[in-house]
């Protein structure tokens, strides 16, 4: 994508946007501050993690000049493939359980606040309720991370267990949030530019040393790209495939055994899915597509008449734990501080705002230690 054209388009849309007051980051200095730009921070990566981190930096570091640099944007990122339901997997992990829980509750607050603003529709954020069913194990329908975070998480009743065909023994009903990146990423880009940020479309970075001397701190939100950029062998792709269909009558999300899910969104209903560990195959596989369709139609037979809107594949950047830490990279100019924020696996939309907040704290620490260099 040509980012010059894209930025121009985004700015035009911003000027025409009349559905609500501009969404300004809030912070100690109040909204829309003058930027004195005496610090330069570069976020590498324009997926949901990079853009959310960039907005959080603008909100919290009022005298920072923030740039987002990436080789791929919007529909070319993994984030674009996600249905975007706020539902961390129970195996999702930060460095400690306490920190992980804080990321998740901070993230929920961010999405919940955004959904209450006039920007919610344009940002692709809304409330969503759904069921998770299993015929295998009661643990599958529980989620220790969000049972106390989302407004409703309860056991499904007997009549509810019979809502969908299948011998469902266990089930839960929950109300959570949907953040659809197809809408959120353009919205976040528009906000970022409006707040004075810069977007740079670059070739894929081979080393952080290429940014030496230009920025005080670099934040690494490169998702799976960090595997090569940081020689990180702990980072593994988990391939996922989805089919989007037109089925406006589906208003509730459903999860079932064997990675089966039906998630309504703003632009269609997402049918999934699969998890292929350590697979780099980005091609749509017709066998996966057929299996997804069969499992989803068994769960909701009305989907049989739903036309396909698109099929897509994404490689989830899985790392245990997510990497959120400062690294001092030796350079010709002494050292460059890099804050890593990647490895969110299948839960990057859910958790991006929580890890973004943590990353901003690490950027503050990095800037303080820079001044002591
Ligand atoms: C099928 C599927 C369904 C999903 N459903 C959900 C869901 O319902 N809920 C949920 O929370 N999550 C879901 N996910 C997971 C979610 O999509 C990911 O966790 C998230 O997109 C990761 O975001 P990211 O910003 O880290 O990476 P990406 O979106 O991949 O962005 C990485 C960015 O870094 C840039 N980059 C990488 N390397 C370099 C380099 N060397 N130089 C310059 N730029 C670089 C890229 O160009 C890109 O801009 C799903 C994923 C898949 C595949």
From TrEMBL:
FAD binds at residues 71-72, 83-85, 222, 345-350. One of its GO terms (molecular function) is FAD binding. Keywords: FAD, Flavoprotein, Oxidoreductase. Residues 41-362 form the FAD dependent oxidoreductase domain. Its cofactor is FAD. The keyword Iron does not apply. It comes from the Eukaryota. Residues 22-31 have a biased composition (Pro residues). Residues 14-36 are annotated as: Disordered. Pfam families: DAO (PF01266). D-dopa binds at residues 261, 316, 346. Belongs to the DAMOX/DASOX family. This is FAD dependent oxidoreductase domain-containing protein.
């Amino acid at each position: 994508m040509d980012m010059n054209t894209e930025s121009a388009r985004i700015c035009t849309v911003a000027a025409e946007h009349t559905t609500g007051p501009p969404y300004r980051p809030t912070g100690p200095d109040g909204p829309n501050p003058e930027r004195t730009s005496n610090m330069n921070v570069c976020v590498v990566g324009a997926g949901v993690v990079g853009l959310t981190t960039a907005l959080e930096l603008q909100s919290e570091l009022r005298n920072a000049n923030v740039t987002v640099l990436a080789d791929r944007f919007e529909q070319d990122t993994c984030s674009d493939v996600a249905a975007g339901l706020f539902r961390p997997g129970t195996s999702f992990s930060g460095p400690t359980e306490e920190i992980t829980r804080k990321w998740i509750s901070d993230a929920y607050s961010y999405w919940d606040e955004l959904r209450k603003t006039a920007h919610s529709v344009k940002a692709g954020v809304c409330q969503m309720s759904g069921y998770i069913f299993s015929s295998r194990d009661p643990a599958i329908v529980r989620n220790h991370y969000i049972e106390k975070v989302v407004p409703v998480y309860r056991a499904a009743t007997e009549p509810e267990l019979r809502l969908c065909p299948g011998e469902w023994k266990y089930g839960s009903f929950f109300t959570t949030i949907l953040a659809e990146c197809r809408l959120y990423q353009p919205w976040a880009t528009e906000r970022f530019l409006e707040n004075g940020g810069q977007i740079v479309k670059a070739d894929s970075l081979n080393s952080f040393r290429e940014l030496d001397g230009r920025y005080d701190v670099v934040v690494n939100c490169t998702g799976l790209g960090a595997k090569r950029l940081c020689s990180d062998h702990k980072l593994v792709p988990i391939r996922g495939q989805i089919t989007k269909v037109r089925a406006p009558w589906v208003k509730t999300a459903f999860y079932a055994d064997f990675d089966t899910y039906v998630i309504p969104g703003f632009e269609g209903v997402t049918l999934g899915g699969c998890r292929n560990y350590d697979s780099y195959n980005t091609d749509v596989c017709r066998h996966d597509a057929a299996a997804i369709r069969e499992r989803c139609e068994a769960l909701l037979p009305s989907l049989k008449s739903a036309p396909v809107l698109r099929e897509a594949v994404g490689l989830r950047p899985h790392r245990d734990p997510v990497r959120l830490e400062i690294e001092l990279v030796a350079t010709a100019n002494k050292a460059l501080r890099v804050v890593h924020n990647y490895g969110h696996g299948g839960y990057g939309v859910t958790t991006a705002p929580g890890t973004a907040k943590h990353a901003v704290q690490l950027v503050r620490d990095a800037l303080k230690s820079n001044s002591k260099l």
